[in-house]
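Sanity check. The docking grid for xanthosine-5'-monophosphate depends on where the pocket ends up, so I'm generating a full predicted complex first rather than guessing from homology. Inputs follow.
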Amino acid sequence: MSFKHRVEEASKAKKSSIVLALDFPYHKPEERETLRAKAQSMLDMVSPYVCAVKINHHLTLPLGTFDGVQALVKQAHEKGLLAIMDGKVNDIGATNTVIAEYYFQAGFDALIVNPFVGWEEGLKPIFDVAQRLRRGVILLAYMSHKGAEEGYGQTIYDVQTGEKIKQYVSFAKKALAWNADGVVVGATVPEKIREVNAVLGDIVPIYSPGVGAQGGAAQTALKAGARYLIVGREIVQAENPAEQAKKLSQEQ
Ligand code: XMP
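Predicted complex below; grid placement will be based on this.
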């Protein structure tokens, strides 16, 4: 089963469209055991109310991949969650291949990548690895922070078609052409979720970060067409993370 379908199944089973961003504030490298324990306990508490966990450099840098986050990925799987690596991978194909091999070897079910790097000698090698190992690839389309407009928000002349088009709409079209498992559009820009959704329909789901701490609203993002909400601080830093995740999942 493809990642797209597996996450759909997990979402139905958990009755939740929330992807937990397992992020914590900076801990000194010597405090890595404290950080590891916090991550394990957060995952335990919140797992009944989310369909997947998203891990990024917040944890891979201090904990390491095979010594650290691999155990969290295993823990997520045991709880019925999928694990997404938010690597925003953005290098030449030869390097991208090695990055993808390592993350998938560590057990991640999908990898977030940056389409600015292009297809030939860029992302194609990642899609090849993912296809061989039956994992997913999720493209950034429009990021949730203000500066996103300087890159993702530019109007461009598409190099293949010559048409004048918004960069993020072009990325949405590439997600269809490349058979991506998802795209990321910030909850902070619901009008852009709507535009991307108009291109993707039910074929490629939209993952939307930026709820709460960054100012985005869950309901607005979902109404605009987001299928999954990526939520970090709003849950992780809540007084009662499990209650907060439960509340968010019930608001959908
Ligand atoms: P918060 O605490 O703001 O965390 O809920 C959001 C998480 O998502 C990541 N993030 C993004 N990831 N595209 C992504 O792939 C984005 O546009 C984006 N915006 C935020 C962020 O690093 C954190 O883990």
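Relevant for the grid: The beta strands are 18-21, 52-55, 82-89, 110-113, 136-142, 155-157, 164-166, 182-185, 206-209, 228-231.
Also worth noting: The mean pLDDT is 97.
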